[in-house]
Amino acid sequence: MPTNSNDVRSRFPALSRSAIFLDNPGGTQIAKPSLDRMVNYLHHHNANHQGVFATSRESDVILDQAHGAVAAFINAASADEIIFGANMTTLTFAISRSLACTWNPGDSIVVTRLDHDANISPWLMAARDRGCQVIWVDFHREDGTLDMAQMQAAIERKPRLIAVGYASNALGTINPIRKIVEMAHEAGALVYVDAVQYAPHGVIDVQKLGCDFLVFSAYKMFGPHVGMLYGRYDLLDRLEPYKVRPAPDEPPGKFETGTLNHEGIAGVLGAIEYFEWVGSTFGQKFANHYTSYYGRRQTLKQAMSAVNEFELEISKATLQALQRIPGVHIYGIQDEGRLSERVPTYSFTLDNMTPHTVAERLDQAGIYVWDGNYYALAVTQHLDLEESGGMVRVGPVHYNTLEEISRFEAALARIAAEG
Fold first, then answer.
1. Residue 219: is its pLDDT beyond 80?
2. Which residues have CB under 8 Å from 379's CB, separation 6+?
3. pTM of the prediction?
């Protein structure tokens, strides 16, 4: 993918605004193919599910296409393994209730302090309700990586479930998911992966990972506010959902409770189609890496490789920019030789200034960033930063430019000097 591609940026209407969007870890801007799908759905196909009339039939076709597109994006074996919902948090609470029904008092589950609270609290509450034990796995404060010795020790206790993030939404760390899955399955545990932060940055193949569940959100990958959950079909088929009686008894329908956000799901289809354009336009050189995939699945893998290649460059530029500013303290991996172990999500503090004030000052310069704990409460607590306001978080994606990172550096340097 060419650096600073105007062809890419032209597909994001919001980028015409005079602002620098570095708030992407909290939600990216929407791609025009996604927006167009949503508008077209509401104009021409808006109807409820499974009617005998034309707009309902058309709506059902679009929903089926969206299930298939998401399955292709993560290489699920079947579109029936894809469940749509309001968001990752709501989906996780729903699945946690169903899974908890299979647990017994005295069983244990594993959560990590590196995770977003949406992959912690649902499991804490489910464990409390079923009388189960919770085993915590810490992360190394010096580089933000998961403590794999603790993970191994936790798995040796034969837990029923391990909840772990693919990438940290606070520190950017990419966890060794495939290794964790192998360790967990040897001990008879299921693995529930939060891939919300990772999905816009890299290739996901749930069959190669071997995970049992994986959840992510379209609003962090250039689509609308819709959540998506992958579950192995045999597990989804066995689990008992909390649902109304007339709802389907088979997946995915038995977990897609109530009337779904149809226009949003149409937008998810558009977001996947945007990635297909990226793959066919910029990802051809990666085709030989994915000869075991075919059609859309291969194109989408090429897309994410192209995205990742560019983001390694802009990630390095962001890290170097932060390192050059006196008074900035970066949390997480800071070794340029290890950038493949993180997504380009950086959190930092600035001496003598609260994160909230830094974010406000950057906003005055037309640069959008986040401050606080971003619902990664366990991270800021473990780093002893919660009481002081957390951290400032910046996160470029592939539509950002190196020139924007230079402007961010200049603005932050001024703030630091004036502070």
1. yes
2. 113, 114, 139, 168, 170, 171, 373
3. 0.97
